[in-house]
UniProtKB/TrEMBL annotation:
Record's protein name: Ribosome-recycling factor
Localization per record: Cytoplasm
Coiled-coil spans in chain: 127-154
Keyword terms, alphabetized: Coiled coil, Cytoplasm, Protein biosynthesis
Pfam families (alphabetical): RRF
Family of the protein in this entry: Belongs to the RRF family.
HAMAP family assigned: RRF
Physiological role: Responsible for the release of ribosomes from messenger RNA at the termination of protein biosynthesis. May increase the efficiency of translation by recycling ribosomes from one round of translation to another.
Length: 189
């Protein structure tokens, strides 16, 4: 059935997109090591508009406990520094007029626990999204089954619903695995 295959492919694509979104978001959650993706969600007010920090300059990681931001426009250094302070990353920038240095402080136990809670909340949002994708796909299959022009048998519909559930289970498992690895990374001292 081409219609069922289309629904399954679209469901798989959307679920995989949710997993990719989770991984991208998890990269912005700070661990004890410096990582340029920590600054992905930082936006700088530049000539009246909000510009992503990574478009304002280069971000490098010269050592495991330090990030260095080199703005393309040296006159924007104060705006970049202000944006980093407002980002609630818990990082205090310092600049020498050319670059901004961001020493990454070691995480306290309390902060690690807070980050794990944020991580789990993010994971639940992604799982809910995956379940919503499953619901949409199930509704599409049931509509096909009721459509007299398609002639979808009850067995084919049941198999499609089972396939959607297997896809859902596999993606939820992948989310749990990703969360487990990130949690271990956060809690590692």
């Amino acid at each position: 059935m081409p219609a069922i295959d289309t629904i399954l492919q679209e469901t798989k694509r959307r679920m995989h997109g949710s997993l990719d979104a989770l991984k991208k978001e998890m990269a912005t959650i700070r661990t004890g090591r410096a990582n340029a993706s920590l600054l992905d969600n930082v936006h700088v007010e530049y000539y009246g508009s909000m510009v992503p920090l990574n478009q304002m300059g280069t971000v490098s990681v010269p050592e495991s406990g330090m990030l260095v931001v080199t703005p393309f426009d040296k006159s924007a250094i104060k705006a970049v520094e202000t944006a980093i302070l407002k980002s609630e990353l818990g990082i205090n920038p310092s600049n020498d007029g050319n670059v901004i240095r961001l020493p990454i402080p070691m995480l306290t136990e309390e902060r690690r626990r807070e980050l794990v809670k944020v991580l789990h909340r993010l994971g639940e949002e992604i799982k809910t999204g995956i379940r919503n994708i499953r619901r949409d796909a199930n509704e599409d299959i049931k509509k096909l089954e009721k459509d007299k022009e398609v002639h979808l048998s009850e067995d084919a519909a049941k198999k499609a619903l089972d396939d959607i559930q297997k896809l859902t289970d596999a993606h939820i498992k992948d989310v749990d695995e990703a969360l487990k690895h990130k949690e271990a990374e956060i809690l590692k001292v």
